[in-house]
Here is the input.
Amino acid sequence: MGIRVPLLRVTTCDCEHCGLRRLALLKGARASDLARSTRCLRNGLSMRGSTIYSAGQRGAAVYTIRVGLVKLVSAVPGRGTRIVRLLGRGAALGLEVLGGSAYAHSAVALRTTNLCEIPISAIDELSDHNRDVTRGVMSKWNDEMTSADFSIALLGSGTVTERLAGLVRMITEICGDRTDAVELPSVADMASLVGASPEGVSRHMAELKRAGILTRLAPRIYRCDPAMFGGSAGASISRAENPLPSRPVNVDSTSLN
Here is the structure.
C-alpha cells in the first residue's frame, strides 16, 4: 500500500463546486460520479519547506495544487540535487504513480500550499463508470508534459538575466501573483532552476534591481516592471533610464532571502 501525505487542516474535497474544476485532474467527472467517490478525496495544507512526497516512494494518490508553489527535485549522481520543475495553481503532482511507478521526484512546497489528494483507487472507480474521466486524466497528463517542455525552453536558453526574467514571468503565471507583489524562491532555488551559481544569480538580480526592472518590497517579495515580460530582459535593461555598471556587482547571495 502506498503512502499518504500528512496534510494540515484536512477537509473533504468539494469537486463539484471547485473553482479549478476546468483545470483539475477530474474535470471529466460528472456530478453524479463525484457524489459516489469524493468521500475519500482530501483537501489540506502542506507548509513551506514540507516534503509532500519523496522520490522512490510508492504512492497511493496524485495531487492537484489549488493554491501555492511546489518544486520537483531530482538527485543528480555525484552532483547533489537539481530542481527540474515548478508547479503552481491547477497543476497535477505524481501522475507517474497512475502507471504503477514510484514517485519520480521529490515534491517540496515552496509556499504554504493547498492540495487536493486524489487516491488512485478513486480515479480507477470513476474511470470504470465514465470514460470521460480517463480522457480527462490523459488530457491533464498531456498538459503537464507540454508545460514541462515550455519550462525547459524558457529556463534553459538565453543569458542568465533572460532566464531569470523567464522564471519571474513563469511564477506570476502559474501562481497568479500580481506583478506588483511577486514572491520569489530563494537564491539557491533560483540558481538551480536557471542553471547558474548562487553568486551569479545574486549579481544578475542586483542588476535587474539597479535597472528598476525589479523592486524589492520585502524578503523575497518584488514588484516587477511589466516591460520585463514584453521582450528579453536584456533589452529591457538596456533601455533603463540608469545604465548598468560594466563591472560585476558584488552582492551577498543571502541578501535576497
Observations:
- Confidence is low (pLDDT under 50) at residues 231-257.
- Residues 159-238 form a domain with the Arc Repressor Mutant, subunit A fold (CATH 1.10.10.10).
